[in-house]
Design a protein that fits this description.
Blueprint (H helix, E strand, L loop, with lengths): L3 H14 L17 H10 L4 H10 L7 E5 L6 H15 L3 E7 L6 H11 L5 H9 L9 E8 L5 E8 L8 H13 L5 E7 L6 H10 L1 H4 L4 E6 L1 H6 L9 E4 L5 H13 L21 H10 L4 H18 L6 H19 L3 H13 L2 E2 L4 H7 L4 H13 L3 E4 L6 E4 L12
Parallel strand pairs: 1-6, 1-7, 2-5, 5-6
Antiparallel strand pairs: 3-4, 8-10, 9-10
Helix pairs in contact: 1-13, 5-6, 5-7, 11-12, 13-14, 15-17
Length: 419
């Protein structure tokens, strides 16, 4: 009788049959917290040389800088941010680099204060800031008071009680003081990276940026990521950022090289990196590797999502190479998986179905199609199309001064007979 242990070892054998120790594809970017993870990130990170050079050029100055990295969701902003921080941590050992993701309903100064305090576990004042905000810390902090009694000999009684939880009333000032304390230890300065501004609505981002002007012009380097629209929101705030860098889709040669790097990071007994050698993309055949890269559209998150499903399909089929037939089955399996992850509303599903039917939906959409979808203008439809893009179910195509969307070019969903 087959046991759960047997199934585990069978899955282990299936991925090794493909010549891999594990799947290299991951939807969330690697956050290097140790040397092993940093090495893995360096192995798989591909391209963006021009953008990296622009960022690193700024770090050749003593003057603190503020950098905004923008791009659509899934384009690789977080991975780019982690790569920048990974390089800085290796090349600038006297610089403190801090990464955090912006939570909902929290201002930038508080976010930066918490992240920096957590990066300074040996600083008692930093730990007090965390404790007072109700954030768990490793040490016990006590508030000490002294009572003095008057007798023939003065007696002193020392008592302790837990510090109370208090929301930080002046996060910008507290952050500035904490940065000053950090700079006494880290002579090359402090870099604070705040990710995921693109997960906030534009009006929230505008307010966050307005409120954070004092913080951004303070003692530290700041790297932020956001939607391309974030840069547009800040045009009136001159001098707020020294560099606004927009990441675009990777071209096909770079995407192909990224596939080589990913596979090589987990391949068993084969470290071929020669782009002209068919072994460099095993278990993909060269033609299926090229097709896979075309379908992923130069979008790193879509690349990882599709890659994960294709490898899972190949493992279930217990094959040794990913030929065109296996790739087709894997891409077919990806379509319903992406829709399941998206958790679309009824109206979003109707727009997706129309997109699949029309193949292109743009500002030139007919009034009949708009009425069928229950909207009166394209501007009402646009947020839904952008939601589909965020879910990797659509992408924007280049048309002169016209917003246009097309479905991700995946084959139709498979049926049980396909397997």
């Amino acid at each position: 009788m087959t046991t759960a242990d047997d199934l585990f070892y069978q899955a282990f054998d299936d991925i090794r049959k493909l010549g891999l120790s594990q799947s290299p594809f991951t939807e969330s970017p690697i956050e290097p917290q140790n040397k092993t993870q940093s090495k893995t990130l360096d192995l798989i990170f591909t391209g963006r040389k021009t953008e990296l050079r622009q960022v690193f050029n700024l770090f050749q100055s003593r003057e603190r800088r503020r950098i905004l990295i923008s791009g659509r969701i899934g384009i690789g902003k977080s991975a780019f941010l982690h790569e920048v921080l990974s390089v800085l941590s290796r090349t600038r050992p006297k610089m403190l680099t801090v990464y955090t993701s912006l939570p909902a309903n929290q201002d930038l100064a508080t976010t930066a204060l918490i992240a920096l305090a957590q990066a300074m576990p040996n600083d008692e004042w930093a730990q007090q800031q965390l404790h007072q905000m109700g954030i768990p810390i490793d040490r016990s902090l006590k508030e000490r008071t002294t009572k003095v009694g008057m007798k023939l000999v003065a007696e002193a009684e020392l008592s302790e009680k837990d510090l109370p939880f208090i929301k930080s009333q002046h996060p910008t000032e507290s952050l500035d003081k904490l940065i000053e304390r950090a700079q006494k230890i880290y002579g090359d300065g402090v870099v604070i990276a705040i990710d995921d501004l693109d997960k906030q609505d534009p009006s929230t981002v505008r307010k966050l940026m307005h409120d954070a002007q004092g913080m951004l012009k303070g003692r530290a380097w700041f790297l932020l990521t956001g939607h391309p629209m974030t840069g547009d929101l800040l045009t009136s705030e001159r001098g707020l950022f020294d560099l606004q860098l927009e990441l675009k889709e990777l071209d096909q040669p770079t995407t192909y090289q990224m596939l080589i790097n990913y596979l090589n990071s987990v391949r068993i007994k084969n470290d071929c990196k020669d782009i002209n050698d068919p072994r460099s993309v095993l278990p993909f055949l060269p033609e299926t590797a090229k097709k896979f890269c075309e379908v992923s559209l130069g979008k790193p998150r879509l690349f990882n999502r599709l890659g994960s499903t294709v490898l899972l399909t190949a493992s279930e089929l217990q094959v040794e190479v990913i030929n065109p037939d296996v790739l087709e089955k894997g891409l077919k399996a990806a379509a319903p998986s992406l829709r399941l992850q998206a958790a679309l509303s009824f109206q979003e599903e109707r727009v997706r179905a129309l997109l699949d039917k029309r193949r292109i939906v743009s500002e030139e959409i007919t009034m009949a199609d708009l009425q069928e979808l229950g909207v009166s203008t394209f501007s009402e439809l646009l947020p839904i199309l952008e939601r589909l893009e965020e879910a990797d179910l659509a992408y924007q195509i280049n048309q002169d001064d016209t917003k246009a969307f097309a479905p991700i070019p995946l084959p139709q969903a498979q049926t049980p007979n396909d397997l």
